[in-house]
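User: Teach me something about this protein's shape.
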Amino acid sequence: MKFLAPLSIFLLSAASAFSSQFAALSIFAENDIGFSDRYYTNGIKIQYTQSGRDFWVNYPQFMLLDLVSGGGERRFFQTVSAGQGIYVPQDIDIAAPQPDDRPYAGWLYVNAAAHAATKNSLDSAAITVGIVGRHSYAQDVQRQWHKMFDFDMPQGWENQLADEFGFVFSYKHSQRVWRGEIGGGFSADALVSGGVDLGNVLTQGYASLLLRAGYALPFSFDAGRVGYCSSTDVRMDDSEAPMRLYAVCGATARFVGYDITLNGNAFADSPYSVSPEWFVFEPVAGLSAACGSFQFDLLLTYRTREYLSQKIGHHTYWSASIKYFF
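Assistant: First, the predicted structure itself:
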């Protein structure tokens, strides 16, 4: 795919100092349930995380964390990632513009995130930059995928958002408010988090609750979904448990000020937009399993209505990720 070469160069150059006490490489895939080809229809992301704070792309983020995160025994982690999101209206068989439905939009990006963690708290700051529009190559990816599997070919990509440079600055704080040992290696915990995303691609605030229970539960902080703070692989866990299995459930309340995939271009000239809902609620549930150095996460997200003219009042998608810790 055309976008893989520049993304690979970014990841390799940012991760040039490869030796560390902790490192993780993850691949994420997200898609709507039943491959329904509507709304947020596909997301992919590759992410590299390691301990330390010496990636040059993360210097500004660590400067912020030094100001806002607490003192004491902290460990530092750094993340570089790259990904793509694809957004389409409810009906991809219509070639004409659909003014009451969400625009066709693609978002191709790179991300650099910094993390300061204690055993029960995590502060993350991230900078994401990329491009929305034709040169996100979302059109090419979706059409090639549908051609490979003989799905219906999407007809309306000529109506997508115009090319526009995009950026998002993100900050998130997570706190483990409870952990209980059940016995026999089983435990449970509860985490609360809050954060903001600020930029021309997305401006929002959010608050989350995450409940987890299972065997050899790690001291980690986030569910395995694509997110701008890129904190899913950060963990304060020195144990070498050969097997892990735990369940996850929770919810996120999002307070949306601006979403370029709904509001339309902020700076470029494009006629496509819809009126977004200011409040979006997202329950989530899933499982995480690990064997040795590998971990697999599968999550289901239910998302309430994102824009006023949305005909189907919810959207459901799955997130799958495979992680290698070394």
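Now, about its shape. The mean pLDDT is 92. The two ends are 28 Å apart (CA to CA). If you'd like, I can walk through any region in more detail.
User: That's plenty for now, thanks!
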